[in-house]
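pasting for ref
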Amino acid sequence: MLAAILPVTQFATLGPRGVNKDFITYFGYGSLVNRATRPGGEVALPARLYGWQRVWGHRVLSAQQPADESPRSCCSLTVQKLTELGSEKGENVPFIDGVVVNIPISELATLDQREAGYDRHALACTDFDLPGSCKAADIQVYVSNKAHRGSATEQFPILQSYIDCVLAGYCAVFEPSGMQQFVDSTRGWNGAIENDRSNPKYPRSVSLPHDQLALFDAIVATARQSNQKENR
């Protein structure tokens, strides 16, 4: 069970499933999985979203970033809906692993600012495998706005510091096998990558040991080679 990875007693319970105007629950599928990128006190639990795919396909525009962040034009993660779910969520249905986080509605504006360029969608809880303590009426998911959609290019590269942050988060929450599943199930690895480790442009970059970075590099290199073969 996904929920067994973290103690469910730490997750704020909203009571019977239904509307609660004081809190919202969102699904993080990229850097938000990494505990170091979220405010202190937040608790995240593993969850799984069915019928969607993660892709390197959101272009970040420097002019639309928060004023306290360094300007950057780059490509980050988004999700795309692949299929309508039936009554069953079987092994053949595509899925995305991530985390659900319950936050006060007063903090939503800050989260929306962080996710500038994304539209926030309320998805049905039936589209997910959720921890038992999650009683939200729906789950908020950020999806790239049409004006921001596009693959990674030299003008909009994937930042290595962002990759490192995301993979470290998945490794911590879902263990190395879950990190590998993240890489295998994400589209767009053949796009341009900018190695900014020596001077990170991602505002929530993390410091990691050399051996972990070497592991990330090997896994991503394999994914890029596979993407190139598929595109021939």
